[in-house]
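Sat 14:20. Reprocessing the chain from the morning session after the first attempt stalled halfway. Input below, unchanged.
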Amino acid sequence: MPTSALQVARTGLEAQDARMRVIANNLANIGTTGFKRDRADFATLAYQDARIAGQQSTGETQYAIGLNLGTGVSLMGTSRIGTQGTLNNTGNALDMALDGDGFFEVQLPGGQLGYTRAGNFKLDSEGNLVTAQGYSVQPQISVPQGATSVSVAPDGTVSAVLPGEAEPANLGQLTIASFVNPAGLRAASDNFLTETAASGAAETGPAGENGRGNIRQGMLEASNVNVVEELVEMIEAQRSYEINSKMISAVDDMLRNANQTL
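Finished this time. Tokens:
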């Protein structure tokens, strides 16, 4: 049975509503450190083939074109746009930004590892480097009490001047995680991403090696959301929604007229 134009237009409404939700989330996170904007990707639903191109039209001829009626559109998925945001200078020694590809590795509750671009780190009561939620940054870095002049080199080496010593002491080295397919990472709350079968296993190593970005101390990466681009997307989605709404009204009028006439 052929799909009604009402059904096709309904899929268009649902698609644009989903697109608006993606845009709304992008705009809501415009001030979120290290946030990467999402894009809604759509695909056509199955076509109904009344006639296939190349099918015999007579015993001696073939149809040059087919008769294919579309059944609408569906949300295929969301793509994370990984372009780097602006690096803003904060002057805070524990703020870190990645200048290039890669993610900071964090130990989440339950033992799972999370990955993030947000480097607004703190020290807990024991001097361990943690996120704002208190999750330990991996590998664990501990800053002794009374240490001053904490510095982080571009390769992730952390050092500080300890009480009674003139030369900085090496406190360890942060490693950066990279993935074959970072777009396959699963988005979680609190700026974290988690590994999936699509992303591949994390490969960790020093910053600045094998395509990993360098660490910039005293800086934070801003969201890569562009307000102007999102507003243009929003207007386009709104107009598309209105057109699909008018299509439903037009088809409804046609059906009403047919019922009254026939």
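Residues 215 and 233 are 33 Å apart (CA to CA).
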